[in-house]
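[Q] Does anyone have a clean structure-token version of this?
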Amino acid sequence: MAKDGKKPDRRAGERTKTQKSAKKRAKVALEVEAASDGPGGYGTDDRPDVALVVDVAYFAVDRGALVVLLVERGREPDPGRWAVPGAVLEPDEALTDAATRAVVARAGILEPFTRVEQLAVFDAPDRDPRTRVVSTAVLAVTSTPVPPAGGALASGRWWRVDTIGTDGGPTLAFDHLDIVEAGVERLRSRLEQTDVATALVEEPFTLGDLRRAYEAAWGIELEPANFRRKVLATPGFVAQTAGKRIVGTGRPADLYVRGAGAVLHPPIPRPR
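[A] Here you go.
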């Protein structure tokens, strides 16, 4: 208890944390807002011959569907079209740091990733009409698709992957449809070989939660009993806790957390 007899304000720490987050978001937004019309803020007179950028194919599962984070462009080229978050790589910056900065600045999502890894390089000479842009795309996933707060130059939205390329879906800028498609296929493949599915669900989770993450990414329904058998037969994939969750009218479901193994052996093959 405080010396003056007053009870300590338990919400003070929360307010301080919120204020720090707001200041961080405002600082990044100001930096981006000061940018000019070129990739990474380069103007027409100071653009490099080649710009190195990081583009983020960022996925989550939301209400049973695989979703991807896109930002709507507000300036040339391709205003009104949608793009994956991206940023020019700074000389002393790691790819994952640049990826985080891109999502923070473009969508206003702080500390966004559960898992991130390098995806592919996109280097077509004409992929950006302003200058030569070589992109290293990264694959990122999260267990919680936080609603974007919006950045200084673009506004973000989680789009269902199955709407891309349809009449009601977004039209993507540059070659970002290729980036999203590459990210989807890599994610589907990684689900077979690694524990990445555990990064798409919040802990603790049921095996039903885990199965629905697979179903959303693969776009198919899986037989529950068969899926459960495969998961529990894969050493190190999941670890059972003492907790249970009431699901529907059946008996309570066991709760799990991610196990110690990152690579699945045997793998869980995607039905063809």
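[Q] Thanks! Anything notable?
[A] Strands lie at 50-62, 65-73, 82-83, 86-88, 115-122, 132-141, 154-160, 238-245, 253-258.
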